[in-house]
Amino acid sequence: MEIIINPERPDSADAMALIDELQTYLESFYAPEHRHGFSVEQLIASGVDFFVLRIDGVAAGCIGLLCLPEYAEIKRMYIRPEFRRNKLGVRLLTHVQTVAQQRGIPLLRLETGIHQPEANARYESFGFRLIPAFGPYHDDGVSLCYEKPA
Q: What CATH code is assigned to 3-105?
């Protein structure tokens, strides 16, 4: 089984399919005002580094990294259900952590929600710790914000 993570434009067919699946998944848990994920257009306009993880050539997951001087924010992390439980999330997180380190960015941050306990457990096991809302986020009772040193 060959697993590779490569940079890819968010508007590629595979990236858009992954983002659409993630959006559909999140819509089942959160009202529109509680979904903060960037659209494909916002990912491109904001200069988010976007990566697709492939297993034997099949797009299995994705992750974005918005690099700012003070921190890098993880955006649009997703693993297709049939590929979960294979530590692919750890591979994606490790990949973007390395990118942040190479760029001298001291912190990784992310915003997620209370209705994703498996994802939150993955972030915590990777070393992320809960923090107060940051950047564009606010304490709305649904969002959870995390950070860890890069």
A: 3.40.630.30
